[in-house]
Amino acid sequence: MEWSITEVARATGTTSRTLRHYGQLGLLEPSRTGHGGYRYYDEAALLRLQRILLLRDLGLGLPAIGEVLAGQRDITAALETHLDLLEQERDRLERQIASVSLTIRKRRGGEQLMAQEMFDGFDHTQYKEEVEQRWGKETYAASDSWWRGLGKDQQQAFHAAAEALGTDWTDAAHRGVDPSSQEAQALAHRQLEWLRGIPGTPGGGSAGPTKEYFVGLAEMYVADPRFGKNYGGEQGAAFVRDAMTVYAERHL
Fold first, then answer.
1. Low-confidence residues of the chain, pLDDT below 50?
2. What whole-number distance in Å separates Cα of residue 227 and Cα of residue 225?
């Protein structure tokens, strides 16, 4: 059997644009291309797509996914590995749910909260290895030290600023704002200033991130759904990328 690109996009909850992007990266080739360049996918392609989507849900970026797919030829063994990782993630989420539920019950009952109970299942160092691989151990150490040194109020203020920036980006994208417009460029400048305030950011500090890092990060927002979800999904992330790229060309 074969499925059209539209049918596959609908079944997986993704978009035809995303599937074509996977094809351009060599991650997912169609089984054949019909009249007018229309793409079709067979069962083998769907199995490969399932692996890609599973790996994305586990937090891997597209380059890393390509490496995994290139290194594993046994599809069943690969799926068993994915299943094991998914079960680990399920266990972690169940621990977080239990932790938050316990916190709610204790607060309602006026009981003493215990730190080890409140933060069971939470781990702010879960991306340590990825950060060290991408940008080096010194980058992770500097950022981690800075974050640990912040007080609770400062950490909350940082999260609030990031959420406000993400909300403003998403709103502008939904309104169809031109990435090169004054409004979008003001948001890009806020993004630069936000990054500048994070010690350890490659090319960061008082001078701000370098052009290469700023543009590379913009591309990551589109390529990695963990980042894109902060801007309303793939479409919003694409708007952020385009605006940041324009800003970099003009000012960096």
1. 115-119, 122, 124, 126-127, 130-132, 135
2. 5
